[in-house]
Amino acid sequence: MVTSPDSPVAPAAPADDALTQLCKAAGDPLRMQILRVLRHNAYGVLELCQIFATRQSTMSHHLKLLANAGLVATRREATSIFYRRKIAHADATVEQFLRAFYRAVDQLAVAPQQLERIDAVHAERSASSRQFFQDNAERFEANQDLIASWRDYGDSVERFVSEQVAGERRCAVEIGPGYGDFLPYLSRHFQRVVAVENAAPMLAACQQRTAEFGLTNIDYLHADSSAAVLPSAAADLVSLNMVLHHNAAPAQIIADAAALLSAGGSLLITELCEHDQQWAQSACGDLWLGLAAEALDEWCAAAGLQPAASLYLAQRNGFRVQIRQFTRATAAHH
């Protein structure tokens, strides 16, 4: 049917409006680069200003446009607002478009100077976290128990591993073992265990605590997750137990952990769900107020891992703990 120029135009469907707004908001070189940088981490306005060497008013304008279009989500962490990419959408068509769009965005190169500035931002975050653990190694356990004590969720973690983690039991790696609460279980069920800790006082406290158990198959390494001294032999299990919310770049530590896994190996993430109790940052050195399950899914997928089993626990004081298993496909390669 041919319509005349005066015929009324049919109203746009909700998906049409959303897609139009997305395309308008993304149609700028700087905003495209912002979305690229937000692939694996969340950043505050001042951090993004540092990364892109731009004024705060300019950056705030671009972020507002991206947020209004639904391309970024915001999250308050203490006194700062952090921005991350947003994929989930109520309309399946829009979400499908977003996933395809981000796959294209992620092919964009990040300028070397921006990579250097990103590293500088992460270094500032990490220095703050390390200093907290250097200064509070003796008090950390008492403060941490106010949020989530191993006594409250440890049995669930161990039962989860026994029931869900299949395959070989040759080597387990725990990154950030804290005081070593999980190590006795790992020592009993794996031939070799490697405990990796980047804060020397915490590593010393861990060794002192576990010495009473007479565990003879554990290697203690003062290193971070990307250190070359980590074992070249593939791990059947890598554990990140309440580690990521202290880490400046959670996606990077997940990628490091995934690189250690054997084919068919499991990454075990025990982590706080998102919460709004800001006192945890000053009391426990938390960089993030928990982490969204969707963010873990995205970061693990980028690291070549597949979601497996999950368990969510209700905790006291309003905190919730998520226990997540991700596996490396048997046909995958490092």
Automatic annotation (TrEMBL):
<dbReference type="GO" id="GO:0003677">
    <property type="term" value="F:DNA binding"/>
</dbReference>
<keyword id="KW-0805">Transcription regulation</keyword>
<keyword id="KW-0804">Transcription</keyword>
<dbReference type="InterPro" id="IPR001845">
    <property type="entry name" value="HTH_ArsR_DNA-bd_dom"/>
</dbReference>
<dbReference type="GO" id="GO:0008757">
    <property type="term" value="F:S-adenosylmethionine-dependent methyltransferase activity"/>
</dbReference>
<dbReference type="InterPro" id="IPR036388">
    <property type="entry name" value="WH-like_DNA-bd_sf"/>
</dbReference>
<protein>
    <submittedName>
        <fullName>Metalloregulator ArsR/SmtB family transcription factor</fullName>
    </submittedName>
</protein>
<dbReference type="InterPro" id="IPR029063">
    <property type="entry name" value="SAM-dependent_MTases_sf"/>
</dbReference>
<dbReference type="InterPro" id="IPR013216">
    <property type="entry name" value="Methyltransf_11"/>
</dbReference>
<dbReference type="InterPro" id="IPR051081">
    <property type="entry name" value="HTH_MetalResp_TranReg"/>
</dbReference>
<dbReference type="GO" id="GO:0003700">
    <property type="term" value="F:DNA-binding transcription factor activity"/>
</dbReference>
<dbReference type="InterPro" id="IPR036390">
    <property type="entry name" value="WH_DNA-bd_sf"/>
</dbReference>
<dbReference type="InterPro" id="IPR011991">
    <property type="entry name" value="ArsR-like_HTH"/>
</dbReference>
<keyword id="KW-0238">DNA-binding</keyword>
<feature type="domain" description="HTH arsR-type">
    <location>
        <begin position="11"/>
        <end position="105"/>
    </location>
</feature>
<dbReference type="Pfam" id="PF08241">
    <property type="entry name" value="Methyltransf_11"/>
</dbReference>
<dbReference type="Pfam" id="PF01022">
    <property type="entry name" value="HTH_5"/>
</dbReference>
